[in-house]
What does this fold into?
Amino acid sequence: MKDSIIILCGGGPAPGMNTVVFTIAKTFLAKGYRVIGLHGGYSGLFSKNPETEDLNFKLADYFFNRGGSYLRMSRFKPTAEDFEKNFNLDLFTSNNIKLLVTVGGDDTASTANRIAKFLEAKSYPIANIHVPKTIDNDLPLPGNAPTFGFNSARNEGAHLARTIYEDGRTSGNWLIVSAMGRSAGHLALGIGEAIHAPMTIIPEMFDKTKITLDKIIKLTLSAIIRRKSLGINYGAVIVAEGVFHDLDPAEMKAAGVNVTYDEHGHPELGKVSKAVLFNEILIKEFDRLGLKVKTRPVEIGYDTRCQDPIAYDLGYCSELAMGVYDLYKKGETGCMVYIDPQGASHPLYLKDLQNAEGKIPPRRVDIQEGIARNYYRYICHYVSPESYEDVKKYVANPEEYDFLKILNWE
It folds into this structure.
């Protein structure tokens, strides 16, 4: 029986999923391996009847440059009991599987780490290598290397935001844009920088003060009021969805926002439009202040996940996939593949990346350096002491809308 490998995809889709999966297939097929695709993410590893499919060259050549994910995905997270009672070892032994390849983001990587430990403890001779994927760009890769899918999602997000920004300029509107990013603001900041949005609000901004709905509102108003004082009655405010995850539920409820919460206490904001919710709150504040501002809510998220990957991710994902083969032939396991700027592959051991809870903490935006520092310093519009007199015609207390004071960055 041929040596085999099996590939699964976890979490949500990102541009480049098919590029990774089918470049891995092409690479291992060329070396004489059988390549098996597992549908349903991790649920297939803990099922008596997993849905599998042999991946051949013609299939790989047809799908490798397309968006979406040919292998159906899942957010299934196995419990400790699943590991002890339901792990399908027979799937591996009956198919002579030597390598498990997992493709996914932080949750998928953390589960891959658990599987690595489990296989090691049980002395099962199955290697496992993880390929880091997320449009959130929040996995801790060295040298600020992106996770695959991020650049394609940012490109599409910027295209959408650039189009609606032009609509705002044409119609005299403000666009209130919510962008994906549960734990970090990379995508929102990348979109905001690309379109020169006068304000982008991300969780990392609140490094020196507690995040509150009032501060989010004041940051938005700071940009709107400042632009008004400059005779500019349009713009876009980009808000990362993660800022809403960090808000006190009582504060959300007091503002008239009613959302459901999952078993971990996190708001289930994927079920509602964050842009619509925030826009409704802003309208109430405009009325209270007597400001005449036209706003339109826009959600950017699911429309960026299944697009065709741009050339950057087509190349990068191919390198990651070939890196999987290189690491496997070197005997590596329990690791995440990393491609350095010269294109060489390196292992990042999952056990070294985990925290005390066994999870891989997200990589967050470095708010005081680099891209963020320059964007907020040179591109954004907001109230500052130099503009107090100019904005007094709109608000009596301009210091309350002072960008640096709101964030305690003075």
